[in-house]
Every structure is written in C-alpha cells, then in structure tokens.
Amino acid sequence: MKLVRYGAAGQEKPGLLDASGRLLDLSGHVEDVGGATLLPASIEKLRAIDPGKLLAVPGTPRLGPCVGGVGKIIGVGLNYKDHAAESGMAIPTEPPLFLKPSSAIVGPNDDVQIPRGSETTDWEVEMAVVLGKPAKYVSIDHALEHVAGYTILNDVSCRRSQLERGGQWDKGKGHDSFAPIGPWLVTKDDVADPHNLNLWLEVDGHRYQDSNTNQLIFNIPYLISYISQFFSLLPGDIISTGTPPGVGLGQKPKPIYLRPGQTMRLGIAGLGIQQQRTIAATVG
C-alpha cells in the first residue's frame, strides 16, 4: 500500500495510490498519514478498504511529505563503506547519529533552499524507515515489528556547517527544506526486501550516486534496536539510514556542490522518485 499526502503546504490531505497509480482520497477514513494512523491495527484497517469505493483526486495536486506530524528524524552517518572512504572518515564501529528538525521537512518535489553564504550544499539520497509503533529497548529480532513502512529522504547537507562549525553535524543538516520526504510511504508488507533496493541520484541529468541498500553497514533491525537504547521511537518518527558514495564532497579532483537553479532527481526502486529545484534561501 502506498500512502500519500497531497495538497497545499500545511493543508495536506491523506490519500493512497491504487494499483493503476490513481490518487484516491482517504480523508473520509483518517485525518492524516502519521501518528496513530501508522499503528499496526490502523494500517490493517486501511488495507481492508476497497479502493473502488474511494473518490479519485482530480488533476495533479502537489504531493506533500508522505508522513505528517513527524516528531523527529534520526540521521545515520557513514552507513556505506565507500561513502565513509570518500568523506575521509573511518568506517564506524557504531552508527553515528544526528537529528534533523521537523522544520526541515518539505515535499518530495518542493524547492530546496541553498543557505545564505553556503558554497558547500550537498545531496544525499537515502532510504528512510518510518516507525509504526513505539520502540524502546527493542531487540534486533523484534525490531521490524515496529516499522510502518519505507520512503525516500534527500538528506541535504551544508558541509561547512556540518564539519567545520564546532563538530555538531546537526548544524549542517537542519536548514529549512533540507529533508524532502516522499513521494509515498510504502507499507512494509509491500517491500519484499528493504536491504536490496537500488538507489540513485542525479544533478542536472548527471548521475552521481548509484548503489543498493545491500551495501548498508548497519541494517534496519540493528539501527532500530540500537537507537531505541538511547531514546524512545514513536509512530511517525523517521530513521534516515545513510547515503551511498557519490556525494558532492567526494567528487574528484575537487568537490562539486549545489548552487541555485539546479535540479536534483533521485529515486529508490519501489519507493518512487523525487525531483527538487534549488533556490536561494528565503525568509519566512
């Protein structure tokens, strides 16, 4: 099942895509895609709905972030060996974690802002795990029971703020628009193997990232279990599992970074495609 949120920013409605790709309205059944709607029992109720009885949404409305009311995004750093190497960092023995604020969240095709004065804004295609029920001190064996589904997150990053401004990765990860999410939340039963999905990213038609989630150092059950030892995970929380090699920071002979007026296009097999235009940062 592919769950979506559509409509103007801040006024999104819940929907789903049927087998033919039509957008159907779910607002008669749930208020939003997020929070309690992602609990296992709620997902089963949605799955039982006959799509033929739902109204089709006319036109091609904007797609918003596929999860609403996100409490927190937990980013995982250096989770692909080749990405750690291109970043000049050691392969971690434990997952490095950082937080992205909810104010960074935008829709999958919304504009991405280049922060004022930034000359080191970078791209990162990542598979994101959406929590479906609370998790605290979860064992690896039971970790996947807490997953609602999977989506795409572009972990946009300002490298100078991340790496040179006092050692806090959050500074370079949290700018407005630095977390495009979507286009869909694909429920876990419809993803045969989240550890074997091709993922890629292009800038202005040039493919920089091209890998597979089978290259993850720390897999999804490990990450959920590990993170839940430090703080609670709640329905609608998102774990962004890390990016493969090919980021701008790692380009040779010198890094290549984003500037206003470019187009990022990225996708993960079965989870859809995002496309963002880069613009100069705005106020408000």
Can you tell me about this structure?
The protein is mainly beta and 284 residues long. The protein folds into two domains: 2-53, no CATH class; 73-280, Fumarylacetoacetate hydrolase, domain 2. The protein is built from five helices and 18 strands. It has helices at residues 40-47, 81-86, 159-163, 169-173, 220-227, and strands spanning 2-6, 13-17, 23-25, 73-76, 97-100, 105-106, 112-114, 121-122, 125-131, 147-154, 157-158, 179-180, 185-187, 198-203, 206-212, 238-240, 263-268, 272-280. A nine-stranded mixed beta sheet has the order 3-2-1-13-10-9-16-4-5. A five-stranded mixed beta sheet has the order 7-18-17-14-15, with no helix packed on it. The protein starts with a strand and ends with a strand. The mean pLDDT is 95.
Give a summary of the structure in a few sentences.
With 284 residues, the protein is mainly beta. 11% of the residues lie in helices and 29% in strands.
